Amino acid sequence: MKILLIKPQKTIPNKFRGVGGLYPSPALGYLAAILEKNGYEVKILDAAIEKWNQINKRGDGCSYIGMNFDEIAEVIRQEKPNVVGVTALSVDAYNAHLIAKTVKSVDKTIKVVVGGCHFTVRVEESLKDENIDFVIVGEGEITIVELVKALEENKPLEDVKGLVFKKNGKIIRNDPRPFNQDLDSLPFPAWHLLPMEKYFELCKYLQGYLLIHERQFSIITSRSCPYACIFCSVRTIMGRGFRPRSPENVIEEMEQLIDKYKIKLLSIQDDNLTFDRKRAEKIFDLMIERGINKKIKWDTPNGLRADTLDEPLLRKMKESGAVHIYVSPESGSQRVVNEIIGKKLDLNAVENVVRICHKINLKINLFFVIGLPGETKEDIQKTIKFANKMRELGAIPSYAIARPTFGTDLYKLCKEKGYLIKDDRDLEKTLLNSEDEGAIQTPEFTPEELKKYAKMIRGKSEMESIMELLKTKPLYVLRLFLVRPIIILRYFFDRYIK
Q1: Alpha-carbon distance 216 to 261, whole Å?
Q2: According to CATH, what is the number of the domain 211-460?
Q3: Where in the chain are the domains?
Q4: Radius of gyration from C-alpha coordinates of the chain
Q5: How far is it, in rounded angstroms, from Cα 115 to Cα 112?
Q6: Is the predicted pLDDT of residue 347 greater than 90, yes or no?
Q7: pLDDT tens string 174-218
Q8: Is the CATH number 3.40.50.280 carried by domain 2-173?
């Protein structure tokens, strides 16, 4: 039984210029590793990174970075897999459907199974696609192995927990798969099946202006979230609670990445890295004891809760190699934070963390979101005022206009209230990371008003980062110019000539 796992191309708006951020899929890495562990022949195709400098028009107002579908079809013909697995976020789900169509156009007997965030929360809509045979809901490591084994041995599919499929024109939804409580039991992701040097090559262009490291990679040390933020779908995918890997298991993976791939910057992608303080401290202590802090730097791009941080912990994080942390207050209105977002976070804790980071010289970004149902213009003004105050204290604020992602309470609420101004297909386009196009309109605000408000949050632009880098690392700027000339030339034209 041969399995091919595919990560779709990266969707971008037609007006996009430059290089898109492309990263390996941890989900496919874990799936491939456990399939290998069980004796199956498996390969991974990252359709974006294979042709990272190729942009293709899709014909619907969007383009995509990576291989075209004819090239993917040729891979299918060469590999002759029995099963093809595809994972996708909502923004790339349309490409995933086109990949399923491409697979079936080559050989209708190939079984197509999809999973990941989008397909977990859009099961029935996904199975309307005649090219998709199975949907794996939630965590897929155990389910994919049981599915492949059932197909191989012609056993009943109804016994595979976490699987949804079509049978005689009807959708069969099996019992849910219990969440894995022993994450240490999973093998480390099978990164050896990916063209790792291509990711590292791309890091030179995309990360050089921010954290000046040429080899960057990611790690996830825990799953699930005990909180219930209105715009987040993590608990839908991974469940409520907090399921950590042991500190020793985490350190072992870090050391493997350092030894095998010579990484210099590690992004810890957890949603709640410091939720369990004792565990977090143990990880940082081990990083110091084993000298990992002398080999790599690290950051936390998915954000931390301010109320889990204090000066002793932040100092230990910095000693262990932290160079940049992200904290997510989401709003400058305490009412919005508590009553609308459901985060239950004291904003005074955010200000305290910003002051400490400035004191110990640790970079800190703050995430803000505006445009939530129930939010007033006065609340948005409070966010603008708070964000700009935090900038004056040394933080780097960034913002987003609220996006009703599938599977979130925000999406459900907007659907019920009639606040969505786009249908689901157009909503997927709105979720493009490079767009600030709003999809929500309430009695309090319009998308156009939100754009004006967002510009009042004075974050640090990419060009500002590049200008800072020009003073210390001019060769990096030259490298960026060779890849992103239009962005840089436009900046100089607008600022100094126009």
Answers
A1: 10
A2: 3.80.30.20
A3: 2-173, 211-460, 463-498
A4: 23
A5: 10
A6: yes
A7: 999 999 999 999 999 999 999 999 888 876 655 443 444 468 899
A8: yes
